[in-house]
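Allow me, if you will, to draw on your knowledge of protein folds for a short while. A protein sequence and the structure tokens that stand for its backbone fold form the material at issue. I would ask you to consider whether the tokens describe a fold that such a sequence might reasonably adopt. Thank you for your consideration; the sequence and its tokens are set out here:
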Amino acid sequence: MDVDQTSYVKVSGSARIIVSGNRFSQGDVIETQRSGQVQLLFDDQTRIVVGPNSRLIVEEILMKSGRSANRFAVTAVKGSFRFITGRSSKSAYEIRTPTATMGVRGTTFDFSVNGKRETDLAVLYGSVRFCGRSGECKRVNRGCNLAYADRRGRVGTPETREEGAKRISDGFPYLFSQKSLMSAFRTRTGSCSRYTKLAVSIASKSGGSVQGVNGPAPVSAPAGTQPATTPAGTPATTPTGSPGNSGAAGGNSAGRGGGNSDGQTGNSGDHRNN
């Protein structure tokens, strides 16, 4: 649906630059640079944001109809991501990282894979069954509840608000600002303010940075930019109306803005029922 800065898709070892309207297939590797970002819309209306300096592999998408998938599996190798489920059965989804596996139950969540190969998760709506490579699993519910899997695949949760703020400060740019996202990829993030405000405060006192606030972040396209006629999908056909009629995507015709005044609070609960 939208690409900011330089991003690539790799097929059989060869890379090409991604542009709005590209279509993707199983096995494609989507990779962004330091200021890159890609917003993906799939046939079943699942939406994924691939954030800066990130890599996502489209492992397996098995459609049972034009509207839903029997299996929807992706692997996040590194970086920052937002995932919003679509019309497919919740049992169809599987998101893998080097140290964790996530199964979803009707949800919107952000997650990241850092340089230590640790996986951090923030659930905004719905719930996620979060399993570490060690086999330990935890159900993480809505309300910006956090969990992580360390490099050995052991699952844990932050013990203090300060630890939670530290964990989201580097790999969760969209909890701090959603201005670079199209309306269909935004959601309410107010439940995370107990962490985001503290993270910004800690960074300002220490002279550090928070990705999406005063660190590297995607550069937005000019206001009013329209998506290409054919949205990126797997293997996408253009959904009628594109994301933004009065259904899941939030009340405006296709394009940026979607009724959000500050890019932070998101739409008025339109992703709650995904």
